[in-house]
Amino acid sequence: MMQIQCPWCGPRAANEFHCGGTTSIARPPLDCDDVTWGRYLFFRENPKGDHAERWRHTFGCGQWFNVRRNTVSHEIDAVYGITEPAPRSKP
User: Fold this and answer.
1) Closest CA to 12 of 60, 53, 51
2) Within its chain, how far is the Cα of 43 from the centroid?
3) DSSP string spanning 16-84?
4) More reliable by pLDDT, 2 or 55
5) Domains within the chain, CATH numbers bracketed
6) How far apart are CA 80 and CA 91, in angstroms?
7) Phi and psi at residue 79, to the nearest 5°
């Protein structure tokens, strides 16, 4: 089973968490057109490799944080706060 390192609670099983999607999506302004709003709601990248995601420790402390995870191997190489910049990628 995949383990995720909660910044507040330490390593826990992945079933305690909920993925909130990609970290870098910016909400468009309220007066945007329907096409822009539709793209925001329904179109997401589905990368193969490293991907930055928001996660919530739902069945623990309830805190949100960011994770950089490889979508192929599920290896997590960075865990950082919502307001923190993403750490540099590993070489």
Assistant:
1) 60
2) 16
3) G-EEEEETTPPPPPTT--HHHHHHHHH-----SSEEEEEEE-TTTT--EEEEEEETTT--EEEEE-TTS
4) 55
5) 3-80 (3.30.2270.10)
6) 18
7) -130, 125
For residues 82 and 91, give the distance between their C-alpha atoms in angstroms, rounded to a whole number: 23
Tell me the one-letter amino acid at 57.
H
Nearest to 44 by CA among 67, 61, 21, 66: 21
Q: Would you say the pTM of this structure is higher than 0.90?
A: no
Looking at residue 90, its pLDDT comes to 66
pLDDT in tens, 13-47: 999 999 998 988 889 999 999 999 999 999 988 88
CB atoms within 10 A of CB 71: 13
Tell me the two tokens of residue 43: 């179109």
Query: Do 53 and 20 meet the contact criterion of CB atoms below 8 Å apart?
Result: yes
